Amino acid sequence: MHWRQIPLGILQTNCYLLYNEKKDCVIFDPGAEGKKLLSFLKKERFNPLAILLTHAHFDHIGAVDEIRDEYQIPVYVHKKEAGWLGNSAVNGSAHFVPNHPVTAKPADKFISEEGVFEVGPFSLEVFETPGHSPGSVSYYSKELEVVFAGDTLFKEGIGRTDLVDGNAEQLLRSIHDKLLSLPEETYVLPGHGPVTTVQDEMDGNPFLNGY
């Protein structure tokens, strides 16, 4: 398996592809620029099987419908954010981009618990990592030694908690109990910015010192 990072939109939200040698893939957080993403998928002959949302903030869902409609594939989100895709007030777009509210049709399937997540040939471990948002989840691939962490943990940073139902203590607990418990060599693939590792964040993330 392989992965690829594709920053999209004005906030440069990291969309990720997880794919195999046959170019079957799952798409994490197609946040914006649907036409650009579609063009890339078709040019590279990818075969998308599902869209996985780490959470449902507007900058992570902007291209959901365009990709879903083109490939007729299911969208997954945590059940706690089932109503967020269609609600610009809770997904943040009403506040941050009031002249261009971002919405999407409801998700097709819902994450309701931690455990092994399988779609097509892909098998991942899903962790509930709330704090940035109540339904934030992270997807871990032991085979690739990567975790798709959404906006929970960044290089030398953590997710903001001043949005709808954010919780700072919960966020730090999610990071400590779930992400920092992974092998130190695990690559952390964040929702924004550069890739980091569990080891680097344990050693140098100023927000985690002393927790």
TrEMBL record:
InterPro entries given in the database record: MBL_Glyoxalase_II, Metallo-B-lactamas, RibonucZ/Hydroxyglut_hydro
Protein name, per record: MBL fold metallo-hydrolase
Keywords, comma-separated and alphabetical: Hydrolase, Metal-binding, Zinc
Pfam families, per the entry: Lactamase_B
Cofactor field: Zn(2+)
Domain Metallo-beta-lactamase, residue spans: 12-192
SUPFAM superfamilies per the UniProt record, alphabetical: Metallo-hydrolase/oxidoreductase (SSF56281)
